[in-house]
Amino acid sequence: MDNSGMDEPAPKIISRKEAQAQGLKRYYTGKPCKHGHIAERSVSDRKCLECNRSNVSRFRENHPESIRETNKKGWSKLSPEHKREKAKRYRTNNRESYLQGMRNHYEQNKAYYKQRRHETLRNLADQYNELSAEEQQRVDAIYAEANELNARDGARSWHVDHIKPLAKGGKHHPDNLQILTAEENLSKGAKYEAEDS
After folding, report:
1. Which stretch of DSSP H or E encloses residue 130?
2. Quick check: is 78 in a domain?
């Protein structure tokens, strides 16, 4: 029997939506994940943190040479900015294999991404319905402008982006929307630099 939970009380139960609204990185449902762990989950991808720890441990056991090589290159000592820069260089220099890896990952996890997309669209629709008529018109105008740009330059060349990402507690509100090129939006991901107040 696992007694790890006896040392510390269980985290406070909080939904993912509440955690997003508070800008938290983790949430806790008190329910087991598909592998039976009753643990906190990551707000950004809903993954069980205990599963993540197990996956990292398993990878380290199965790929010791890869870990040694990574440590030799000093990856673990790099700052987050340097890691992002190196990853960006890798994606640029190995674009085709990187994109193929992304396609393979999507194919293997299609059901998961489909479910995530449905949840996101439901969330956006709920937030849109809570806006005033004037705010809804402003949102519609932003999407109409993006559609015009895409019609001019090619489908999906331009994205409507949430300045503060939904995963960080951002709202689907006209003041939180901007139009970015697809490349800018994809490189931004869920990163958000809070402005000084």
Report:
1. helix 110-130
2. no
95-108 and 80-93 helices, crossing angle to 10° = 100
CA 63 – CA 69 distance, rounded (Å): 10
Contact 50, 37 (CB under 8 A): yes
Q: Please tell me whether residue 41 adopts helix, strand or coil conformation.
A: strand
**17-53: per-residue pLDDT in tens?**
888 888 888 899 888 888 888 889 988 888 898 988 8
Say how many domains are in the chain.
2
The answer to whether residue 156 is domain-embedded is: yes
Q: Report residue 172 as tokens.
A: 């689907």
Residue entry with tokens 């598909």: 34
Calpha distance 173→162 (Å, rounded) = 9
Q: Which residues pair with 159 in a beta bridge?
A: 180
- Cβ neighbours for 25, distance < 8 A, ≥ 6 positions apart: 19, 42, 43, 44
Which DSSP category does 172 fall into?
S
CA 63 to chain centre: 26
- Show the domain range for 167: 132-187
Provide the whole-model pTM.
0.47
Contacts 24+ apart (CB under 8 A), 113-116: 116/46
The Cα–Cα gap between 30 and 148 comes to 46
Rounded to whole angstroms, the Cα distance separating 94 from 99 reads 9
Q: Is 137 in a helix, a strand, or coil?
A: helix
